[in-house]
Amino acid sequence: MLASQIGVSRVTVSQWENGEVTHIRPENLFALANILKVNPEWLVTGNGERSRRATAGSGETTEALRQALPYIHLHQNKVFVVHLPDTAVFSDAFHNIVNDLTLLSTLGIQLVLVHGARQTLDRTLKKAGFEYNFDQGRRITTQAMLPHIQQAVGAVKLEIEARFSMGSATSLMQHPRQRIMSGNLIAAQPVGILDGVDYGHAGRVRRIDIQAIRQHLQTRTMVLLSPVGYSATGEVFNLASTELAQEAAIQLKADKLIYLSEPFSSALGLQPPAFLPLSEARAKIQDHELLGCLVQAVANGVHRGHLLDYQLDGCLLCEILTRDGSGLMVSSDPYEDIRPATHEDIAGIMDILRPLEQSGVLIPRSRERLEQDIHHFSVIDRDGLILGCAALYPYVESASAELACLATHPAYRRQGYGEILLNYSLKQAKKLRLKQVFILTTQSMHWFLERGFHYGSPDDLPKDRQGLYNWQRHSRIMTLPLGK
Predict the structure, then answer these.
(1) Element (H or E) spanning 121, and its range?
(2) pTM of the prediction?
């Protein structure tokens, strides 16, 4: 579909995605920008605020397209839930956030927006002379506060709807207005009394009208959820917007839950872009309120959770349309990104192994050899990029296996992927009821020693493998007994 719209073949688009061309014709670049409803400059640099001197045939253009095009295909018709705090809605950054959300919707991503109103409500209640308290992150809400809560929530909601109704402009074309709808989609119930504290009209999500939301999403309409809910008797409840976003993502089985936030790197001790597997994220939930929401969502089926600094221009596009992103990503167990290799992975495996072969760390393997052995390989795959690989060659007669070609992509070393591949390979060996794994190495002895391997000798190798041992290379043999 994209190829026909641009006026090129599907092979050409595939070549752009795979980096098999070094020059993209200017007319094709402008046609793509027209389809995506962005300024061509964004495709040139990947960021409208960067250098304006790049040209259509530059490596920057090619790299931006390589990064973006696969994600455009990947995310089509996927559901993303995005939480907008009212601080973002009333900030100078919101104009570009609206433009970027509109672009994502144009690309076929189904968006559910959940807005907060905490700071707006703080000001509204103070102006009206109310004193208020929070307990366990919830505002204790009295009956008298409800009109002011509805006023504050309504002000934020109207601001969002007005901004999307304005449309957005680029130097190339004018966006149509983005359709956005809201309604009584949330059934709520009172929090009640916890530890002797009566939360009054503070509520929890009881039910979300998922069917109605999906019907609107299928028509490219964004859905806007406000942090108020209604009971069957017409009572109004004040909801925590962050919890509402979490619950909406879980019930919609969303592909992503995204929280726009104030800068968070110092609180979490991380420098974005960063990735946290679910187990590590759980250990940090006390450091940031939103991290707990992401953990809960990912643990309940949401594919990935993201925390972004909304003050960073283009944070949404960078996080969604580039491989490394711009913020913090929480994903399920990294073992879920490991899979058996296929013939389509050979080029990625060769890219990882080639520098190590050229430096003498690994013995060179031809493409034909890799094609023959591909069923022995496992890979870590992040959105089509092979981050690491390992091969396990079983010797069933001796109840052992050789671990070979354990390597990671140069850009992703020292991030724990080697450890993940090693542990995965050991689990596979145990499934085969093998008693020992061995490796041959000339460089990484200490790395393996730290992980329980011991030095061995050629006599420790299976007989079939002893005959293939290269005495000139003189690799060190290391073994690891496998427990039950």
Answers:
(1) helix 118-127
(2) 0.71
Query: What is the rounded CA–CA span in Å between residue 383 and residue 365?
Result: 26
- Spatial CB neighbours of 379, under 8 Å, sequence gap ≥ 6: 338, 339, 340, 341, 345, 348, 349, 386, 387, 388, 389
What does the domain layout of the chain look like in residue ranges?
2-70, 76-334, 337-481
**Inter-CA distances, 238 with 117, 187, 281, Å:** 10, 12, 28
Provide the residue-wise pLDDT of the chain in tens; the chain has 484 residues: 566 666 666 656 655 655 555 456 655 665 666 655 555 545 544 444 333 333 444 455 566 666 677 788 889 999 999 999 999 999 999 999 999 999 999 999 999 999 999 999 999 999 999 998 888 889 999 999 999 999 999 999 999 999 998 865 443 444 457 899 999 999 999 999 988 899 999 999 999 999 999 999 999 999 999 999 999 888 999 999 999 999 999 999 999 999 999 988 777 777 888 888 888 889 888 888 899 999 999 999 999 999 999 999 999 998 998 877 889 999 886 656 789 999 999 999 999 999 999 998 999 999 999 999 999 999 999 878 899 999 999 999 999 999 999 999 988 887 788 988 998 999 899 999 999 999 999 999 999 998 889 999 999 999 989 888 888 888 999 999 997 5
- The vertex-142 CA angle with 137 and 144, nearest 5°, equals 140
Surface-to-core class of residue 385, CB atoms within 10 Å of its CB (0-12 exposed, 13-18 middle, 19+ buried): middle
List of residues 6+ apart from 256 with CB closer than 8 A? 78, 80, 81, 249, 302, 303, 304, 305, 306, 320
φ, ψ of residue 409 to 5 degrees: the values are -60, 140
Could you say which architecture CATH assigns to the domain 2-70?
Orthogonal Bundle (1.10)
- What are the beta bridge partners of residue 438? 402, 479
Return the ∠ at Cα 329 (arms to 323 and 238), rounded to 5°: 135
138-139 vs 134-135, strand pairing mode: antiparallel
Q: Which fold has domain 76-334?
A: Carbamate kinase (3.40.1160)
Q: Which of 62, 73, 74, 81 is nearest to 3 (CA)?
A: 73
Write the CATH number of the domain with boundaries 337-481: 3.40.630.30
294, 243 contact by CB (below 8 A): no
